Amino acid sequence: MRIRLLATAAALALLASPANAQGFGMGGGKESQKTRYTEQEKREEAANERAYRDALKNTKSTTGDSYDPWRTIRPAGGEKNAKR
Question: What is the C-alpha to C-alpha distance for residues 43 and 37, in angstroms, rounded to an integer?
Fold first, then answer.
């Protein structure tokens, strides 16, 4: 009886305690977060951003039409539902 009471009290204590998962563990707090960039890192980030924008420009359609993944499913001619 005494062990059951002790186990129940321990379980309630664990359930009632806050779950601070972010405060513990590997690497932990604000000290591990990198806040300052070096000049080299800034240049690399700017180069990556330019490369990303250039890649987006190259992938856009030259016909002006937006990409339609359902183009082979829909009937040709842009017909709407004839039943409606």
Answer: 10
Cα 18 from Cα 65, distance rounded (Å) = 54
Which residue, among 57, 33, 58, 36, has the nearest Cα to 45 in the 3D structure? Answer: 36
> The tokens 């591990």 sit on which residue?
32
Per-residue pLDDT of 34-82, as tens digits, reads 567 889 999 999 999 999 999 888 876 556 567 777 878 877 665 555 5
Region of 75 (left: φ > 0; alpha: ψ -120 to 50; beta: rest) is beta
Using CA atoms, how far residue 75 sits from 14, 50, 72, 80, in Å, is 61, 40, 8, 9
